[in-house]
Design goal:
The complex is a heterodimer. By secondary structure, chain A is an alpha/beta fold. Chain A is about 25% helix and about 25% strand. Chain A contains 17 helices and 33 strands. In chain A, the strands form 11 sheets. Chain A has a 7-stranded mixed β-sheet with strand order 20-26-21-22-23-24-25. In chain A, helix 12 links the parallel strand 22 and strand 23 (about 460-470). In chain A, helix 2 crosses helix 3 (about 80-90). In chain A, about 50% of the residues are buried. In chain B, helix 3 (about 75-90) links the parallel strand 3 (about 60-65) and strand 4. A 4-stranded parallel β-sheet of chain B has the order 2-1-3-4, sandwiched between helices. By secondary structure, chain B is an alpha/beta fold. Classes of the chains: A alpha/beta, B alpha/beta. At the A-B interface, helix 3, helix 4, helix 5 and helix 16 of A face helix 1, strand 2, helix 2 and helix 3 of B.
Chain lengths: ~675, ~140
């Protein structure tokens, strides 16, 4: 089975990395190298300060050429970190990259153990396991597949819009998929942006229009991703497009239909602070600039005959019978820009949200501030329509709060509140404004300066943790634990604004499961590396932009969107992707055609060959999970790169020593062989 | 008698548990040094025969780590692992191996702490159970 059967025995080079002191301070690397030198088939064992450095890689290349190595083991960090680096190095020395084996003695050894003796013994065991596995590694041929020259961007807030525009500008086709009836996302709901006080709509709507007009961008509104098949460069995405019931290409958004609609419902865009009709435009600047019909709320034609809008539409755009559509779209890369929702303030009943109309969320106040909002930009109390004389802001509602499961800081709320305090001061100069905070996080460009300015405008920032909001004699009372004075105070006020934090956008879990993406502990999508691969995911060809990855403000969102777009563009421009050769293989002589594997394979990669009477593996469909070989009663299936023989050899090597007796680490093997 | 230092073999799927173990390392969490992990792409790759071989050849405990239900990188490999482990645990008692020596944990790529805790608890459990001695006659299984 192994490559060594017919040829001469493998010649293994083993390299133990110090990683500066990351490994060397807990693991006696010289002792590990000494141990490696005694193992079967090991021709050379060395230790080196930084194996991933150029000189470290050159060391391997030189040994491969001069000592005729046929296998290479590097004991260093996780294979998830540097396996590609060293595969490249051995390939550069003329070896097949799959004859390289990585041994993880940093993340899973030196960094998690304290006792030097124990860590060194473990490192020796792991190196023995890797060397045994390396002996049985077989060369695998990499193949290449073409990349579909199109990108799907999921979510059309500012992140998705920016990513779509960048990819489209680079000359590639973009499918911009949006769940709602219009693109724009949460940024469209904002009045002003901090700290520059740019009008949000003024800077966003031109980009929305650019998306609609760009010849390379196809907008899919009212659409959600249902299934994703394939792999990097070759995804097939099934998109469900809900019926709009209005022909968006014909609708001129004249609004004649809405004028005759007898129904009224809370308007989602204004967060229920105003009403809309059953046939409606989400907001005046909506893109596509077309109405849509809320089928769940519309009276319909039967049994409640209405249909007045159909008659009112002169261009005959409205069709109540329009069906939902399913589309299959082939793309090379996917950008996830699914954004966020605001924390549901009803989760914290002590703040009286939903009970007292003058307790608002910060996003609701934003709609009140907006000239296009339900009050035309007038700040009033919802209860009586009067302007408030005293307003309290509460920070960190649903953020930095383990009790609600959100340990993280939402990053935008401090500045969002500071900006709103400024807007209120601007509109109501005599209004007394108090902001109760845990800590003020004004970390961005121009943030601290803006915070200073708003304090000078007379907004009072008090360090305190509000515990309760209740009503006394018709006024709202905020009970606050003043953490600087160390006493509980009660603050009578007219209006309370809850600075709600950010949470992952609804449906994040389902989408994560469809794409097989990992989530961070904060439930946002997990990036491939927190420092160096912040836009990549654990799935090649799937990139993150904006709040899908974690709370962030607009500049950071736009930056990440441009990063995701450039990653997708680079992939498309390259034109080819490697197809992983780690797939299952059938030994036709052993296959008894029982079909057990066929039922187990989640990718339908096992196909019965009626001519030969045996199962075969479709190597493009196979993803290399290895479920089938573990179930085959005839042992006819072999999992390349994870064969039974390789795993058995690892077990033999790991269990070869009685680990209850710890050997003396200082007893180093004489290092002639190490220096060879 | 010197303190019993058990031998524990681990199988971890590349996408969730192995990544979670890496995160435990990156975060410098600490756990006992008894575990030796063999990386596989999916927990569904773990043939029960690997586990039996580990026990036969000297492992005192076997720890399997996979993705949480619904999160499997390969759709459903973790469910297959769960079924196999369930059946295998039922057999172990008859072979004179306490079923508690075989553990299946779901650990996501972001759960470094969960990984460290699970390994710590499992190591403690195996220390309590003591060395696995297959030469002892099997105690009658509780059925």
């Amino acid at each position: 089975m192994s490559a060594g059967d017919k040829e001469s025995p493998p010649r293994i080079g083993v390299y133990i990395c110090h990683c500066g002191i990351n490994i060397a301070q807990t693991v006696d690397v010289k002792a590990v190298a000494g141990h490696a030198a005694t193992l079967p088939n090991v021709a050379v064992a060395r230790d080196y300060m930084y194996m991933c450095s150029d000189p470290g890689q050159d060391l391997i290349k030189k040994d491969v050429k001069e000592l005729g190595l046929t296998r290479v083991v590097v004991a260093a960090c996780s294979p998830r970190m540097h396996e590609p680096t060293f595969r490249g190095a051995v390939f550069g020395a003329g070896m097949n990259p799959y004859l390289f084996e990585m041994c993880n003695i940093r993340e899973q050894c030196s960094w998690v153990h304290v006792d030097r003796v124990e860590a060194t013994e473990k490192a020796k065991d792991l190196v023995r396991s890797s060397a045994a596995r390396a002996s049985l590694l077989e060369p695998l041929e990499e193949r290449y597949a073409d990349v579909t020259k199109a990108v799907m961007v999921v979510g059309a807030g500012i992140a998705g819009i920016q990513a779509a525009l960048d990819v489209a500008e680079a000359g590639h086709k973009v499918y911009l998929v949006e769940r709602d009836a219009s693109i724009g996302g949460h940024m469209a709901q904002l009045d002003k942006t901090f700290p520059t006080l740019d009008c949000s709509a003024c800077i966003l709507t031109p980009k929305m229009v650019d998306c609609a007009r760009h010849p390379n961008i196809e907008l899919l509104t009212l659409s959600t991703v249902k299934e994703v098949a394939g792999f990097v460069g070759n995804f097939r995405v099934k998109v469900h497009e809900r019926a709009r019931f209005v022909d968006a290409s014909q609708c001129t958004a004249c609004g004649d239909c809405a004028k005759v609609c007898p129904q009224r419902f809370p308007d989602e865009f204004n967060l229920g602070l105003s009403t809309r009709t059953a046939i409606y435009q989400p907001f005046p600047q909506a893109v596509p600039a077309a109405f849509c019909r809320d089928a769940a709320q519309c009276l319909g034609r039967l049994p409640l005959a209405c249909g007045r809008c159909i008659e009112a539409c002169e261009k005959h755009c409205i069709d109540f019978d329009q069906p939902d559509k399913e589309r299959e779209i082939d793309v090379g890369a996917i950008v996830l820009a699914t954004g966020m929702d605001v924390f549901d303030a009803l989760t914290l009943p002590e703040f009286g949200y939903g009970k007292y109309p003058d307790v608002l969320t910060s996003l609701e106040l934003e709609r009140l501030c907006s000239a296009g909002g339900p009050t035309g930009g007038r700040i009033i109390r919802i209860s009586d329509g009067e302007p408030p004389k005293d307003v309290v802001f509460i920070h960190c509602v649903g953020s930095r709060d383990k009790a609600v499961g959100n340990e993280y800081c939402s990053r935008v709320c401090c500045m969002f509140i500071i900006k709103q305090a400024h807007l209120l001061k601007d509109k109501l100069p005599d209004c007394k404004i108090t902001s109760y905070y845990m800590d003020i996080r004004a970390y961005g460009k121009g943030f601290e300066e803006f915070y200073d300015r708003v304090r000078e405008e007379g907004v009072l920032f008090k360090r305190g943790k509000p515990s309760e909001i209740f009503k006394r004699k018709g006024r709202l009372v905020v009970r606050v634990d003043d953490t600087l004075l160390g006493k509980v105070v009660e603050h009578e006020t007219d209006m309370v604004v809850l600075g709600v934090g950010l949470v992952p956008s609804e449906g994040y879990r389902e989408l994560g499961q469809i794409l097989k993406l990992s989530l961070s502990s904060d439930r946002f999508f997990l990036e491939a590396h927190p420092k160096l691969r912040p836009v990549d995911t654990n799935i090649d060809g799937v990139y993150l932009a904006g709040c899908a990855q974690g709370p962030k403000d607009i500049p950071d969102t736009v930056s990440q969107a441009k990063g995701a777009a450039s990653s997708a563009i680079a992939l498309l421009n390259k034109g080819k992707v490697k197809v992983d050769p780690v797939v299952a293989e059938i030994n036709e002589d052993a296959c008894s055609s029982c079909h057990i594997c066929e039922a187990l394979c989640p990718y339908s990669a096992l196909i019965y060959d009626t001519q030969k009477g045996v199962m075969t593996v479709n190597q493009i469909l196979c993803k290399g999970c290895g479920v089938c070989p573990s179930a085959c009663p005839s042992a006819a299936i072999s999992m390349r790169h994870f064969t039974d023989a390789q795993i058995d050899a690892q077990l033999d090597a790991l269990l070869a020593r009685d680990m209850t007796e710890t050997s003396d680490v200082s007893d180093r093997v004489p290092s002639q062989k190490v220096e060879a | 008698m010197a303190q019993f230092n058990p031998t524990i073999i681990g199988f971890a799927c590349n996408w969730c548990c192995y990544a979670g173990a890496d995160l435990a390392g990156t975060s410098r969490m600490k756990y006992p040094a008894n575990l030796r992990i063999i990386r596989v792409m999916c927990s569904g790759r773990i043939d029960p025969q690997f586990i039996l071989k580990a026990f036969r050849d000297g492992a005192d405990g076997v720890f399997i780590g996979g993705c949480h239900p619904g999160d499997c990188h390969y759709v459903s490999g973790n469910y297959k692992a769960r079924k196999r482990i369930f059946l295998l645990r039922n057999l172990l008692a008859g072979l004179g191996i306490e079923p508690e020596r075989l553990e299946l944990e779901w650990v996501s790529a972001s759960e470094g702490q969960r990984f460290a805790d699970a390994v710590t608890q499992f190591t403690e459990r195996i220390k309590q159970l003591g060395r696995l001695d297959l030469n002892q006659p099997a105690e009658p299984a509780g059925h």
